[in-house]
Amino acid sequence: MKKHLTLLATTAALTASPLMAQDLTVTSFGGAYGAAQMEHMIEPFMAETGVNVLFEDYGGGIAEMKAQVEAGNILWDVVDVEVIDLERACAEGYLEIIDQSVLPDGDDGVAAADDFIPDALANECGVGNIVWSVVFAVNTDNGPGPQTIAEFFDVEAFPGNRGLRKRPQVNMEWALIADGVAPEDIYATLSTDEGQARAFAKLDTIKENIVWYDSWSQAPVLLNDGGAAMVQSANGRIFAAIQDDGAPFEIVWDSHVYDLDVWAIMKGTENKDLAMEFIKSATRTVPLSGMQDVAYGPTRASAQALLPESVKQDLPTAHLDVGLKADGIFWADFGESLGEKFNEWLLQ
Amino acid sequence: MTSITQKLSPEDARNAAREVRRRRLQAFLFVVPLLVFLIFAFVAPITTMLYRSIHNPTVANLIPDTLTALEDWSGEGVPDDAVLTQFATDMKRMANDRTSGQLADEINRALPGMSSVTKSTARALRRVEDADLTTNGAALLLEANDRWGEAATWRAIRKAGPVYSSSYYLTAVDLERDAVGAIVPRDTQIYVQLYTKTLKMALIITGLTILLGYPLAFFMAHASSGLANFLMVFVLLPFWTSLLVRTTAWIALLQTGGVVNSTLQWLGIIDEPLQLLYNEFSTILAMTHILLPFMVLPLYAVMRGIDNSFMRAAISMGSSPLGAWSKIYLPMSLPGLSAGALLVFIISIGYYITPALVGGTDGQMISNIIAFHMQVSNNWELAAALGSLLLVLILVLYWLFDRFVGTDNLKLG
Prior knowledge:
The complex is a heterodimer.
Chain A: H1 2-14, E1 23-28, H2 31-49, E2 52-57, H3 63-71, E3 78-82, H4 83-91, H5 112-115, E4 126-139, H6 149-152, E5 162-165, H7 171-178, H8 186-190, H9 193-204, E6 210-213, H10 218-225, E7 230-234, H11 235-245, E8 249-265, H12 272-282, H13 285-289, H14 301-305, H15 309-312, E9 324-325, H16 328-347
Parallel strand pairs in A: 1-2, 1-3, 5-6, 5-7, 8-9
Antiparallel strand pairs in A: 3-8, 4-7, 4-8
Helix pairs in contact in A: 4-16, 7-9
Chain B: H1 2-6, H2 10-52, H3 58-62, H4 64-70, H5 81-97, H6 100-110, H7 114-125, H8 130-144, H9 151-160, H10 167-172, E1 175-177, E2 183-185, H11 191-222, H12 225-240, H13 243-254, H14 259-266, H15 280-304, H16 308-316, H17 321-349, H18 353-358, H19 366-375, H20 380-404
Antiparallel strand pairs in B: 1-2
Helix pairs in contact in B: 2-20, 4-5, 5-7, 5-8, 6-7, 6-9, 11-12, 11-15, 11-17, 12-15, 15-17, 16-17, 19-20
């Protein structure tokens, strides 16, 4: 019976009944990451406020937000957005503007504005939630693997298949780094036709050895079943495979491309205030530090301080000096045109 | 009906006519649910899609006055200060409405790199006084970003302006209009190649299902009914399993450390595992398996209805078995064959899930690029144009089929 009632409540909430205002729909990426958010952010919030949170999954991107806002049928309240999509989602009016001044101080008393790392509050539509990173990983069963991006692109010294996610993002950056472009010049170079041609030319040198995949979950699988000797991956996925399954993988941090995820509020939601309460609660020091479970770095200095030394080395935040910050503005500009060129290059 | 009513009294004629009307209404009411369903689930979405592929009012709604002012611009050099001032005013309004991002997206599509320029300019102009904008708008705009002083930028705005535009269809066949409006090939050539490849793969898959399905259906049609039913279970089994399960089963079989590769390695036939998955081969293989029932079922139904004595008669009259088959049996089984071929071909042309899961790079079909524009690049207009072309392609093929084979020759069972 209770199940039926929940179902009824859900249906009612979906049809936007104001009576059910105490339900909050939070959407994120699921998997081990979603489980960590459930444990450290959603369950404490439900316990403290008595609000019933419906936790849903999506695959990223802004298409679903666009569809909801254009149809005027807002199904989500709070959504976890990659910064690479945030710029566009915010500017196109799919997200509410967040008053960042109401965010609570860190547990050590430092004001929120100083406690958050600068990138976490850089966009007015979101509050940083994790720092994550695209790294490459090798299977140590195959003997010593490449240790730099340049070696990743060296098929003679390191034969075998390379698993890459099928999109221009990160691959274009890595190609230029492997070709000797300085990290600070990457995005300026990629803005020019010559720079793009140079990146594709470098990718051409390993094209025969690339195995393409579409979702992060495929990366550890490819590495495990021998489909690839080395893979590009979100760092948390490899970490989980090592930690939980004892997989013989090694994460290489050289030239990792790091980015943030933020919590954002869907434009036009009826639960805007409640959504803001959730974000305030979920981005406090302790909930943020819980994201270490899946090896994603916290976005507050006070949360970083709570982590044991042994864990810190596994987080992107310990390797920012050898990393490159993904440029959301560049990808808002060139995502579509490079996406087309990338598709054309794939067909050649 | 007139011939009947003439012989009836006026009273009876009226009753009869009423009765006819009542029956018609009844018949109509029976089909109303289906009709409503078809309109909402089929006609309306397709019309919307067709409309969307030529209709994009975003820019015209956002900056109507700028577009009007731009009409007189020659296309060379920088437009008049009046245009720039008008645009600066529009930008301020959009920055405050939070619609500048929509404009940024549209201009960026015509000229990559303009998204950040538009957004940063909108931010810069957001807090400027209206009076300053009217007197000094052009200078403020150029100060915010010098790209507004380039003719290419304004050509991009003008290009993005029209409410009705054929540009998405041009893009869908790898063409575009240059600065003077002539139609020229685009820098990137993707879609024609993909349509060709999709057609090629659909043809191969249809051919393979005929090769596999025809003998099977023939055997089943001539086997004892017990054996035929038993075999039918195997044909139908894939039908009862989820499409996703069937496709992932192929992943388990074909992957590098999968069943096929490890068996071949164990037998010593190969040393290194073969790349069987994530290419055209795996897409064709999995789709042939999935679509085989669509070929076998109509073939089997038609073959069951063919009287064996025709073949026996032909052979007894001196024809060779092969000759009898090609002259007698094949033409008689043709309706089933063409129905099966048409079904498999049309379904495979628009197939999405299997190429997405096992296609890798080589195995991508046009539907995957449509999904890309719906979900990733958010270019719904281009997705609609690509989808409409696919629809037209299927209609043309159906028309050709009707011309050369004839839809009368179609039998589903």
